[in-house]
Amino acid sequence: MTKKTSQQYDMIVIGCGAAGLSAAVSYLNTCRDNGKTPNAVVLERADREHRGGATRWTSAWFRITRDRELDPNFIAQMQRVSKGLADLDYCKTLAAEVKSTLAFLEQNNVEVIYFEQAFPNTNTGGGLGMPGGGGVSIVNGLAAVIESSTGMDILYETEGLRLSVSDDGEIDGVVVRNAQNRLQTLKAGSVVIACGGFEGNKEMMA
């Protein structure tokens, strides 16, 4: 039989991959910039050794130029290969934020390397930028920032079951289950869902 308890945070992030960890570190930086004490938690279903979701297994390459601009042909290529279904606003945002994204990684314990591609290919940017060590280095670097910061935490082997809703109909937290099969309601003013999962949804993949 499970026992249910509650705990309060300012923000809960569901997912310990690149998106979730970036959200948590960005929140932490904002708190520091404004002289506020952080109070947030990241939920990770896996144990610490296997944390990171899909990010852990990606090489995390960026098709970029030497001066860290996105491959000039990237947006047109996405439109072509998707047969017009690609979200071009999303692609344009990606292009606009490549430099700041790489800088963010470097500022938070993640080495970024660049190398020219020696053989002909469809990458008109000329090279590839990537974190040294691939996606797992993103996970380890950003997680280290969180785990070394007061007021921040990562809860491992903790599965988000459902969102918690207040009597007024507002999302106010997450109901989770830990490795001991214990239920908890983690309360928060903000909840960030960054756990992926669309890959298992046939309708979203259609």
Describe this structure in words.
With 206 residues, the chain is α/β, with parallel strands linked by helices. Helix content is 29%, strand content 28%. It is built from 6 helices and 9 strands, in the order βαββαααββαββββα. The strands form 2 sheets. It has a 6-stranded mixed β-sheet. Strand 8 and strand 9 (183-193) form a beta hairpin. The chain is globular. It starts with a strand and ends with a helix.
Keywords summarizing the entry:
206 residues; six-stranded mixed sheet; 6 helices; three-stranded antiparallel sheet; 28% strand
Tally of helical segments = 6
What sequence of helices (H) and strands (E) makes up the elements?
Answer: EHEEHHHEEHEEEEH
What is the strand content? 25-35%
Distance between the termini: 40 Å
Radius of gyration (Å): 19 Å
Largest beta sheet: strand ordering: 6-2-1-9-8-7
- Find the count of extended strands (DSSP E, 2+ residues): 9
Helix content: 25-40%
Describe the global form: globular
Mean pLDDT: 90
State the major sheet: 6 strands, mixed
Helix/strand/pairing category: alpha/beta
